[in-house]
Amino acid sequence: MKYTPPQLLLSDKLLRLRVDPNRAVADFVNILLGSAQCRMQIEDAATGSSRSMKNISQEKLRQIVIPVPPLPEQRKIAAILSSVDDTIEKTQAVIDELQAVKKAMMQELLTRGIPGRHTSFKQTPIGHVPETWAVVPLGEVLSGLDAGWSPQCESEPPQEGRWGVLKVSAVTSGVFLPQESKALPEGLVPRIEIEVHAGDVLLARANGVLSLVGRTAYVSSTRPKLMLSDKLLRLRFEERKANSLYIHFCLQFENIRQQLVDRTGGSQMRNISQAALREVLVPVPSLQEQTMIADAIHSVLKEEEHEVSYQRELARTKTALLSLLLTGEIRVTLDPEPCP
């Protein structure tokens, strides 16, 4: 831990590992324990019948096998990977700030409209909106819903030119992440009618985590040959009634998202039916004002998408570096010792 406030105690579900400074560097050991190599050993050694409550004994933890390079190499490896972590943290701070700006813009624009355009407002089941706006069930502006397909896929993302199936995690962050996908096995015929295209609005219809059900993402751009999974829906809109990007922002707005959460069913795997989705109320200004609102919020979303993509790339870089450095495939160059 880099910093902790005083007077904090460990709970019975935590262990403090004290590292022998003559054999290992604490930062290096911390990085090791988060690596795929160690995580696999820890998961194999964990016991417990419940998926939500596993545990590992101190005896089993002591038996985890780790590589132990010389102390100077440990320090150098820890410094390299810590610098990547620092950049990831700084990027997350930028993302958090952009999300706060986007949330404030949505609060203003989705309840009061374009500044200076409206002077009178009305109370509706979803809160105050301008007097001239309609509040209608989502089904009234939809032209259709497309469900996906989830064949048994390979674990890795598809290579260029191959077909793949999106995972639900491609959508649940609120930013479209095409890299969150799995390769379609060579022997299966792709379903081109559920290929995802730029301009699509995708919705997570099912998830084990309630707060992620009904999350949407707007596809600003995407690589070809990616299909919807069966836990995703594509929303298609009547072009004369609704701007797809505007409706995406509406469905992210907390006043409206709560309707989605309230309409979910299921116990372990929560889901929302197409019928329930169509009942969700949304505010509908003129098509011109929808476009103006969507464009304003989208300017912030594009920045957020860029930062999220950069952060994901950093995480992949860290994973690759971790594997290369911990296996010794790449040896670090040590700093020269200072002259006496």
Automatic annotation (TrEMBL):
GO biological process: DNA restriction-modification system
Coiled coil (residue ranges): none
Type I restriction modification DNA specificity domain mapped to chain residues: 50-99, 130-302
Keywords carried by this UniProt record: DNA-binding, Restriction system
GO molecular function, one term: DNA binding
A Pfam family assignment: Methylase_S
Origin superkingdom: Bacteria
Similarity comment: family membership: Belongs to the type-I restriction system S methylase family.
Entry protein name: Type I restriction-modification system, specificity subunit S
Organism listed in the record: Chondromyces apiculatus DSM 436
Lineage: Bacteria, Pseudomonadati, Myxococcota, Polyangia, Polyangiales
